[in-house]
Design brief:
Elements lengths: L2 E11 L17 E15 L2 E2 L4 E9 L7 E8 L4 H11 L6 H5 L3 E10 L1 E6 L2 E6 L3 E7 L10 E2 L11 E12 L3 E4 L3 E11 L1
Parallel strand pairs: 5-6
Antiparallel strand pairs: 1-2, 1-13, 2-3, 2-4, 4-5, 7-8, 8-9, 9-11, 10-11, 11-12, 11-13
């Protein structure tokens, strides 16, 4: 096994609920601006332990995401040592193979890969993210008709995770670095993730 990582994931974007991009339809705005965040609960890459580390990606894509040409910036946990940083970069750029390698061809421009302080908090149906002073996000799961169970989307046509996703909504979403946007009350997805490559 080259690598195996699993943990918690969420994304938040500028689309109105629910993001049509996952069904290969155009975004609700002129671009799809999205922040994707991973917290690795357990993971290894070529014998390097990755437990407890975080990775965040900010993406600006054209309205039709599958057209490619995405602009992306990658933020790696600044608590990682040199070997861990190299492992995170290999996995989350797709160069180590696996699920994320299938998304990598959609990226046209990488504005930077940098270490940053990343705070990823999980509290039942909410997720909170801080990346230095450039990213701020807070989202919460939506409940279905019974007011108890979350709304679940399984087997979408496009997605950063391979597990079922739970529909959520952002209360805060701000990004100011490679490009800038700020919004609230827009689309979010929460999920668990498991990636591997051999």
């Amino acid at each position: 096994m080259v690598y195996q990582v699993e943990g918690d994931f969420f994304e938040a974007c500028t689309c109105l609920l629910s993001c049509p991009c996952i069904m290969l339809s155009p975004a609700t705005e002129e671009t799809c601006d999205v922040v994707l965040a991973w917290h690795i609960q357990r993971g290894r890459h070529d014998g390097v332990a990755l437990d407890g580390l975080n990775v965040v990606m900010a993406v600006r894509s054209p309205q039709q995401m599958t057209d490619g040409g995405w602009t992306a910036a990658l933020y790696l946990d600044d608590t990682a040592d040199t070997a861990q940083t190299a492992a995170l970069q290999a996995i989350f750029t797709g160069s180590a193979g696996g699920h994320l390698a299938a998304l990598a061809p959609l990226i046209g421009t990488v504005t930077g890969i940098q270490s940053a302080p990343i705070e990823f908090r999980k509290d039942n149906g909410t997720r909170v993210l801080r990346v230095g002073d450039v990213i701020e996000a807070e989202v919460a799961e939506l409940r279905g008709m019974d007011a108890e169970r979350p709304i679940v989307i399984d087997n979408p046509q496009l997605g950063a995770v391979v597990q079922p996703m739970r529909q959520a909504r952002s209360s805060t979403l701000r990004y100011e670095d490679a490009f800038s946007f700020a919004t609230s009350q827009r689309n979010s997805f929460i999920a668990e993730f498991a990636y591997e490559a051999s």
